[in-house]
Amino acid sequence: MNSRPSGRFADLHLHTFFSDGTFGPEELVEQAVRQELDVVALTDHDTVEGCQPTASACHDAGIEFITGTELTAEQEGHEIHILGYCVDAQQPRLLKEIGKFQVVRQNRIREMVQRLNEVNIPLQADQVFALANCRAPGRPHVARALVQAGLVGSLDEAFERFLKKNRPAWVPKFKMSAAEAIQLIHEAGGVAVMAHPGLNRSDEVIPGMVDEGLDGIECFHTKHSHPMSEHYLQIAERFGLLVTGGSDCHGLSKGRPLIGSVKLAYEHVEKLKAKAAERRVAVQRQFTA
Ligand code: AMP
Ligand code: FE
Ligand code: FE
Ligand code: ZN
Question: Which DSSP letter does residue 204 get?
Answer without folding.
Answer: G
